[in-house]
Design the sequence.
């Protein structure tokens, strides 16, 4: 079968990516044309509309599931889930940034454009089923985030953060690319379905194992899993606070989507102990190191390493149990962590002056609303019922235990008990310590209120009535896993293999 | 099909109260705040009474289904409420005692800051506690379980300006987390093996399984894990350490949460899970042993405490031990009976202690009290009733329930009984010690005040002369509870209470009770426990009233042993050295300074010289780091690749 020209349906299946790119470019073009004073509102507003349009186009895309562009892109419940998730995170990020950028006196300009471009990459990561395309979208997403991390140009730590992220990130993506090349060598294809078929028919070549290892290194870096977590605290500490909220959730969610495809759909060989160990290391190192942090951003950075560990626990479980648990966790974690960082960004004030634990003393009195919402996010991060964080942990550990991973579950459970301590420390400081130094709390603007309301609603929704979301992720995971059995077989005979060997 | 009683209203009512006070309380007057809190809590109590009135006409167990909550595959959890005899007892105890304590709190907290906040938390606690009690499945129970922990944390730390209060709250929370995770793992195991968390489904499918008599099988593991959860919440060995510290909270909180209701949740949970424990006799034995040891251990610590609330706190731990001892010998109804009478007399003891503390201007040290019976006669009288009840004097409430437990323990194993009676003697001794030190002799508070002693308590009454009686709003709940402490045990005469609960726990348990002990043995046991109580009373009388110089001499002659008891056997210190310090030190020194900053740099700098060019462009930043980080990534990658190659060639 010769490659034919793409048809209309092909474009519909990447509609969100197209729409987001157009908005991103529009922002870039408009940036020099508008007055600097107005640019913040105008470009931010445009970015906001862009994300909304992205959500609408995701809905349109969801109406026509199937493959596009010669089996490089697949639209199914799984990719729709991650599209909605990352776009929603970006929406909240833009709402949060609105005020933040003004307070930090940063030029709006390409900031909002970069967010949208990053989104394009992340969206594509979740729907791409072809390793080279996955690599390209990974790069699109990463490069935007590298720049966003350094956006506080006047701050040395921010530039340092950006540079470190860039250097180490490129290093890690190189591993991924190398892995892709080796996988091609081992199976003769870069299409995940075809790879899956090749790996599941007879003996797995040694090269495939090495390829798996290399890809795991690359993706492990992106999700900040140990032992590739080392960059996280420095980068998170320096990057602008709203961006950290974004970085710790959206690109991670996209990378987890890729991991889900590679590990579960392609049924990666020899992965079990790799994931097991990485999960244990991430949870333990993250939680224990977070105990002694007194910078809130750094603390949350370690916490995000620990949460990556919890998610990896689900990867060690049986696919039909683990995949939905991963998806639920990424959504719940996104809601609570983005919310927490929205509060942190607001309090940080000019030049991110107030980001230590000490600065949160007395917040319970000076701003009951902020303290209250942050408390709910922290309670969710601890994993206490009636918040999304509880059910997220519940499903992950329950999936692990049902897959007979007794020790992994116990280690995870002990870890989340340790983790409770440092989140609680923030709550204690907010409510039970007198402020030693006057920390000004700015009035909460409308956009931030909306951001907090959205994340709060999502956190509580997932905690009180998780049923719907769970049903949805289970169905999407089902589709993902079925692809392994049905479409992969079909692919072998026709399009994928000949195309890949061309 | 029995009609719906709208059970969901019972927890929701206090939640509404909590919401109103939480959101608008700041702008409301104290009168309005207390009216709101009392109305919604009282309404829940009325609902409880209504349920009790309708009870005979119900088909039991009565379940009310509100809609599905989680449905995934064939695993389903619903919003559902479950009512049987056990629930009814708990429901009435929680709402009844809870309501009385709400009334008392209005008087006690009147002059405190954060009045609305206090009542909002208190109502929130009621919501979670009632959710726990009325839950129709383990997950809903767990929500209530975690929720009461949260409310308790908020209330312990209520006087957050005190450092000790803040850290006590944190300690309670963390220790409870450990227990909660035992509970959680038990739930996972139940889901995995039985595919349900619903009480009726779960218990009927477990009932069909054979009992696990040898080794640690599935049901035994589940039972043990549930017990870990119960030990956390109900302050049993080894997780009891948080409860004495929790006394930093306002006294009504200690009465409600740390004596009458929340801490008994563990007992309730074990009793609720009696089907599981019934099939796991080994787990049940562990429950009995933990309960028995805790009862004795905590009672001995109680002897040497001088803070009036600390004595009561250790006493609570010890009494909870009795309840677990009862559950452990499968005498669940005896355990629940003691739970009920304990709610009356221990709730009363705390409230009366609060009234004492109130009277002497915030002083909690019993050495600075004495002779108070002339100043606060009502408090004295009510507290006397409670003291006799806990010491086990007939015909007070505690006598019946404790006697029931001891008789059943004797049947199971005389060793339990022996420790139980010893504990009863010690209990009687330390309670009368408290009673004599507080109410008899001469008032010792004045000289202390003249020596410039500042009240340790946050309660702002300092600097007044004679102790004074509390207002009526505080005394009325005391009197009602005093009446209950006297007559509350009479429902157990002739095994009526046990019979009432027998549909829940099965007739089998009742049948054994009536057969096993002959009438004469039963009376002998009863006489022995009364003698133990009287001996305790007499010893306290001699030591603390007649010859008050003796205790010091005895303490001196005991030396190290006495010191060990005063310092609570150094358990807090041991835990600190064993668990807390290594964790914090390890994370500070090794993981953070070490792995993050030191070791990696040192190790990598040697090997990663070749990678120097990477960071040349970044000379002005802490250039070592990026290089070492990259080195770390490289080492990790190398290990993983090596492992995968090994997997491949294997």
Sequence:
């Amino acid at each position: 079968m010769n490659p034919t020209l793409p048809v209309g349906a092909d474009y519909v299946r990447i509609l969100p990516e197209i729409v987001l790119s157009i908005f991103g470019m529009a922002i870039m073009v408009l940036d020099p044309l508008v007055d600097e004073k107005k640019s913040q509102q105008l470009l931010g507003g445009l970015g906001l509309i862009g994300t909304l349009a992205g959500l609408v186009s995701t809905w349109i895309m969801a109406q026509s599931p199937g493959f596009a562009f010669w089996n490089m892109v697949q639209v199914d419940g799984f990719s729709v889930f991650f599209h909605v998730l990352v776009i929603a995170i970006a929406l909240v990020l833009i709402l949060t940034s609105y005020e933040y950028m003004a307070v930090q006196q940063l030029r709006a300009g390409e900031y909002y454009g970069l967010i949208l471009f990053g989104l394009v990459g992340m969206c594509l990561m979740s729907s791409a089923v072809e390793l080279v395309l996955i690599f390209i979208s990974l790069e699109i997403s990463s490069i935007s985030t590298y720049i966003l991390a350094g956006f506080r140009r006047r701050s040395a730590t921010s530039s340092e953060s950006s540079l470190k992220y860039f250097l180490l990130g490129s290093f890690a993506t190189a591993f991924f690319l190398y892995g892709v090349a080796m996988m091609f060598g081992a199976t003769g294809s870069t299409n995940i379905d075809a790879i899956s078929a090749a790996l599941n028919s007879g003996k797995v070549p040694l090269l495939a194992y090495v390829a798996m290892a290399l890809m795991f290194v690359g993706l492990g870096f992106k999700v900040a899993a140990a032992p590739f977590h080392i960059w996280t605290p420095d980068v998170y500490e320096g990057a602008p606070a709203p961006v950290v909220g974004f970085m710790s959730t959206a690109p991670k969610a996209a990378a987890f989507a890729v991991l889900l495809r590679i590990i579960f759909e392609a049924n990666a060989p020899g992965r079990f102990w790799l994931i097991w160990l990485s999960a244990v290391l991430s949870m333990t190192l993250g939680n224990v190191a977070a105990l002694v942090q007194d910078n809130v951003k750094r603390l949350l950075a370690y916490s995000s390493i620990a949460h990556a560990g919890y998610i990896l626990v689900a990867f060690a479980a049986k696919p039909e149990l683990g995949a939905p648990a991963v998806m639920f966790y990424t959504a719940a974690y996104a809601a609570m962590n983005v919310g927490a960082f929205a509060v942190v960004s607001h309090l940080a004030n000019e030049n991110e002056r107030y980001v230590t634990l000490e600065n949160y003393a007395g917040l319970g009195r000076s701003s009951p609303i902020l303290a209250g919402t942050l408390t709910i996010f922290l309670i969710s991060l601890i994993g206490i019922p009636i918040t999304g964080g509880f059910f997220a942990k519940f499903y992950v550990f329950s999936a692990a235990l049902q897959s007979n991973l007794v020790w992994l579950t116990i280690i995870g459970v002990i870890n989340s008990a340790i983790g409770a301590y440092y989140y609680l420390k923030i709550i204690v400081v907010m409510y039970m310590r007198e402020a030693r130094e006057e920390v000004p709390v700015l009035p909460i603007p409308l956009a931030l209120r909306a951001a907090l309301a959205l994340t709060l609603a999502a956190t509580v929704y997932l905690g009180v009535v998780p049923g719907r979301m769970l049903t949805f992720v289970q169905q999407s995971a089902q589709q993902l896993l079925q692809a392994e059995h049905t479409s992969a077989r079909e692919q072998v005979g026709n399009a994928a293999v000949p195309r890949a060997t061309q | 099909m029995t009609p719906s009683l709208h059970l969901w209203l019972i927890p929701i009512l206090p939640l509404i109260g909590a919401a109103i006070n939480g959101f608008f309380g700041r702008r409301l007057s104290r009168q309005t705040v207390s009216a709101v809190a009392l109305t919604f809590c009282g309404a829940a109590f009325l609902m409880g009474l209504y349920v009790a009135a309708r009870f005979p006409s119900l088909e039991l167990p009565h379940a009310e289904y509100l809609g599905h909550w989680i449905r995934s595959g064939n695993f389903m959890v619903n919003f559902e409420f479950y009512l049987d005899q056990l629930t009814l007892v708990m429901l009435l105890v929680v709402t009844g005692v809870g309501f009385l304590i709400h009334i008392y709190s209005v008087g006690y907290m009147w002059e405190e800051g954060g009045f609305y906040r206090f009542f909002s938390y208190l109502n929130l606690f009621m919501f979670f506690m009632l959710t726990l009690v009325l839950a129709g499945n383990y997950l809903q129970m767990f929500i209530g379980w975690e929720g009461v922990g949260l409310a308790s944390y908020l209330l312990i730390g209520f006087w957050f300006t005190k450092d000790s209060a803040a850290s006590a709250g944190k300690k309670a929370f963390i220790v409870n987390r450990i227990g909660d995770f035992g509970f959680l793992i038990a739930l996972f195991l139940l889901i995995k093996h039985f595919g349900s968390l619903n009480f009726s489904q779960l218990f009927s499918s477990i009932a069909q399984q054979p009992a696990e008599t040898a080794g640690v099988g599935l049901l035994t593991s589940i039972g043990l894990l549930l017990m870990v959860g119960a030990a956390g919440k109900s302050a049993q060995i080894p997780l009891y350490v948080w409860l004495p510290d929790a006394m930093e909270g306002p006294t009504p909180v200690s009465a409600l949460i740390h004596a009458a209701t929340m801490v008994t949740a563990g007992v309730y949970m074990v009793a609720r899970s009696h089907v599981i424990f019934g099939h796991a006799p080994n787990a049940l034995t562990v429950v009995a042993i933990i309960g028995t040891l805790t009862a004795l251990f905590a009672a001995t610590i109680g002897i040497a405490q001088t803070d009036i609330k600390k004595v009561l706190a250790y006493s609570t731990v010890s009494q909870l031990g009795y309840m677990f001892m009862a559950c452990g010998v499968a005498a669940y109804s005896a355990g629940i009976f003691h739970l009920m009478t304990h709610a009356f007399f221990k709730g009363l003891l705390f409230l009366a202690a609060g009234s004492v503390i109130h009277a002497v201007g915030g002083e909690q040290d019993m050495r600075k009290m004495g002779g108070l019976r002339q100043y606060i006669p009502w408090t004295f009288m009510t507290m006397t009733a409670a003291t006799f009840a806990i010491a086990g004097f007939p015909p007070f409430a505690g006598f019946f329930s404790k006697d029931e437990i001891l008789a059943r323990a004797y049947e199971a194993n005389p060793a339990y009984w022996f420790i139980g009676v010893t504990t009863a003697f010690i209990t009687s001794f330390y309670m009368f010690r408290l009673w004599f030190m507080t109410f008899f002799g001469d008032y010792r508070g004045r000289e202390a005040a003249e020596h410039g002693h500042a009240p340790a308590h946050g309660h702002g009454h300092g600097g007044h002369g004679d102790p004074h009686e509390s207002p009526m709003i505080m005394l009325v709940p005391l009197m009602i509870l005093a009446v209950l402490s006297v007559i509350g045990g009479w429902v157990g005469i002739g095994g009526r209470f046990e019979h009432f609960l027998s549909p829940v726990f099965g007739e089998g348990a009742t049948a054994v009770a009536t057969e096993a002990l002959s009438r004469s043995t039963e009376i002998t046991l009863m006489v022995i426990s009364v003698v133990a109580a009287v001996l305790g009373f007499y010893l306290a009388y001699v030591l603390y009233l007649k010859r008050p110089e003796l205790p010091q001499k005895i303490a001196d002659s005991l030396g190290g042993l006495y010191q060990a008891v005063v310092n609570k056997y150094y358990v807090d210190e041991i835990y600190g050295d064993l668990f807390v310090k290594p964790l914090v030190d390890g994370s500070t020194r090794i993981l953070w300074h070490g792995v993050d900053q030191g070791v990696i740099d040192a190790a990598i700098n040697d090997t990663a010289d070749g990678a120097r060019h990477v960071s040349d462009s970044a000379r002005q930043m802490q250039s070592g780091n990026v290089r070492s980080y990259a080195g770390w990534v490289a080492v990790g990658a190398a290990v993983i690749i090596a492992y995968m190659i090994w997997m491949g060639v294997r």
Remarks:
- Chain B touches chain A through 63 residues (CB under 8 Å).
